[in-house]
Write a structure and sequence with these properties.
alpha/beta; Carbamate kinase; 8-stranded mixed sheet; 14 strands
């Protein structure tokens, strides 16, 4: 595969706001037209939460991961595969791209085992087969991938979207992994919004200890570190609420937090 693969993890507020959603899809198609091979790895947390509330199913998170029982898993599949994947594929095609929605079950892309009893049907990817994604990229299509995995025995599992995107980027030997989120980047303080512009992965343990990296940021940063350690060129956490923020990558001036090993961290307090 080309080393111009860019895996974009798309989630958070940018999925809820229709104007931003259209902006992101335009950017993905623009990246494709600029010679990149985009892979859209999406989440769907807001839609899942909304449906769970309508069905009076409790919403529970443990260390940033969604507790998933059987009822929740049905909602996860319905929203991620049945709704979000189809909608994003349609939008990409409306913007002039060609796309195809799949999930981690497709072609046994994400082979999983249960992560822990405590989390229920949350999967941990133990094997990845990128053949389905490779075939779509070879055909000039933008893969739109839902983070649902399988144990190969007919059981499905909910996978954290950030984790799935990071593992997929590593398996594809992607040039870039981008996490579109709904904050400015990794901040020293959420209240002050003081962004750490460059994070060397060697500083991650200390930031966890200080509580700078906590909650939903834990699986994000862990996935970023894993991607870098497995050969992804660079990783960027970008504010998806900023229109066309993805295009900052084209001029090499990515906004938000860049994660890597090339230099010392910038912005840690």
């Amino acid at each position: 595969m080309s080393n111009k693969i860019i895996v974009i993890k798309y989630g958070g507020n940018a999925m809820v706001n229709e104007e931003l959603k259209n902006s992101v899809m335009e950017d993905v198609v623009t990246l494709q037209h600029a010679g990149w091979l985009p892979v859209l790895s999406h989440g769907g947390g807001p839609g899942i939460n909304k449906m769970l509330e309508q069905l009076n199913i409790p919403v529970k998170f443990i260390n940033g991961l969604r507790y998933t029982d059987e009822a929740t898993m049905k909602v996860v599949e319905s929203i991620l595969i049945g709704q979000v994947g189809t909608e994003l594929t349609g939008l990409l095609q409306k913007k002039g791209g060609k796309a195809c929605a799949i999930s981690g079950v497709s072609g046994n892309l994400y082979h999983c085992r249960q992560k822990s009893e405590e989390l229920g049907l949350v999967g941990e990817i133990d094997e990845i087969d990128t053949a389905a994604v490779d075939a779509l990229l070879d055909a000039g299509l933008i893969p739109v991938v839902a983070p649902v995995g399988t144990d190969g025995q007919g059981h499905t599992f909910n996978i954290n979207g950030d984790t799935a995107g990071s593992i997929l980027a590593a398996a594809l030997e992607a040039d870039k992994l981008v996490l579109l989120t709904d904050i400015e980047g990794l901040c020293n303080s959420i209240e002050e919004r003081d962004v750490i512009s460059y994070l060397n992965i060697k500083d991650v343990p200390a930031l966890k200890e200080k509580g700078v990296i906590s909650g939903g940021m834990l699986p994000k940063i862990d996935g970023c570190v894993q991607a870098i350690e497995n050969g992804v060129g660079s990783v960027h956490i970008i504010d998806g609420r900023v229109p066309h923020s993805l295009l900052s990558l084209l001029d090499g001036e990515a906004i938000g937090t860049t994660i890597g090993t090339e230099r010392e961290s910038i912005g840690i307090k």
